Automatic annotation (TrEMBL):
One of its GO terms (biological process) is purine nucleoside catabolic process. GO terms for molecular function: purine nucleosidase activity. Keywords: Glycosidase, Hydrolase. It comes from Microterricola viridarii. This is Nucleoside hydrolase. The lineage of its organism: Bacteria, Bacillati, Actinomycetota, Actinomycetes, Micrococcales. GO terms for cellular component: cytosol. The keyword Methyltransferase does not apply. Residues 5-305 form the Inosine/uridine-preferring nucleoside hydrolase domain. SUPFAM superfamilies: Nucleoside hydrolase. It comes from the Bacteria.
């Protein structure tokens, strides 16, 4: 059994790890669409092609998309992912050409061609998805599932005091996604920050002779350095791989439905995903209602980690 996926990404280190996870756990990559975020969009697209080709998925089309957010300047995160987005590890880049530069239009075209079949997994700023919603108001009825890596509900942010990077980099686009009438899952920092790899898992990756593990280990070193500096222990957090994992196996987690919105006007709080956690009306909330999202309540972390290691041959 495979899951046909449109993967919207800004390929840095954890996006690459998410592709490795997907390839090893039943993802059928129909297309990858790329946005600004971790790195500029052209760099992200080149990295996406490179990782796909490394995995033997050289027929998966890659489309460049939004080069900047809807309503604020471009900001990138090379300090987390390296200047090349893949940890400055000397990964040889693929020379395959991207398939086009209109990612939002491609998302619309693909879901129109296969209504109700495709799962949309977005692990970067939501500009491409917001634009697709503006192009096709019926988009929510055409996709099967929508999984977003984004937000920080009730916990600190990582790009600002309250802002998680993917939402913070384009809050207006994220609000469009929240306002759409679909059942959307936000996989946020409230759960992804609990997915740090233990030393034993890192040892398994480092010791593996599988080419997938060797690629992961190579690009992860920069990431491990960043998290060691932040957390005081050598680990890394699997943000994007968790979104991919829940797209492929929703049973790995339990979920909570909440009303949500984006703070768009505040100075220090702009980009904060605000979720109503009081639970007053949780029994009557419709997950497909505009302004309603699902978040992860609990995760089978050990099973998720084993799936990740298996996808690397570690």
């Amino acid at each position: 059994m495979t899951t046909p996926i449109i993967f919207d990404c800004d390929t840095g280190i954890d996006d690459a790890l998410a592709m490795l996870y997907g390839a090893g756990n039943g993802a059928d990559f129909v297309a990858c669409t790329v946005t600004h975020g971790n790195v500029p969009v052209a760099t992200g697209a080149r990295n996406t092609v490179t990782v796909l080709d490394y995995l033997g998925l050289d027929t998966v089309p890659v489309f460049e998309g939004a080069a900047r957010p809807m309503a604020q300047p471009l900001m990138t995160a090379e300090f987390v992912h390296g200047q090349d987005g893949l940890g400055d590890a000397g990964v040889v880049q693929s020379t395959r050409a991207v398939s086009g530069d209109m990612a939002a239009a491609e998302i619309v075209r693909l879901v129109r061609s296969r209504p109700g079949e495709l799962t949309l997994v977005a692990v970067g700023p939501l500009t491409n998805i917001g634009m697709a919603l503006l192009l096709e108001p019926e988009l929510p009825t055409l996709v099967k599932d929508v999984i977003i890596m984004g937000g920080a509900v009730g916990v600190p942010g990582n790009s600002a005091e309250f802002g998680e990077a993917n939402v913070w980099h384009d809050p207006e686009a994220a609000q469009l996604v929240i306002d759409a009438a679909w059942d959307v899952l936000f996989v946020g920092l409230e759960i992804t920050m609990k997915t740090g790899l233990a030393a034993e898992s890192l040892e398994r990756i480092g010791a593996s002779e599988d080419p997938r593990a060797q690629l992961a280990w190579k690009i992860m070193q920069f990431y491990l350095d960043v998290y060691e500096g932040q957390m005081g222990v050598r680990t890394c957090v699997l943000h994007d791989p968790l979104a991919m994992a829940l797209a492929l196996d929703p049973e790995l987690a339990t979920y909570r439905t909440i009303e949500a919105s984006l703070e768009l006007r505040g100075g220090r709080s702009r980009g904060q995903l605000i979720g109503d956690l009081r639970g007053y009306n949780k029994a009557t909330l419709d997950p497909k209602a505009p302004g309603v999202i699902r978040i992860v309540e609990s995760l089978k972390t050990e099973e998720f980690h084993e799936n990740f290691l298996r996808s690397l041959g570690a």
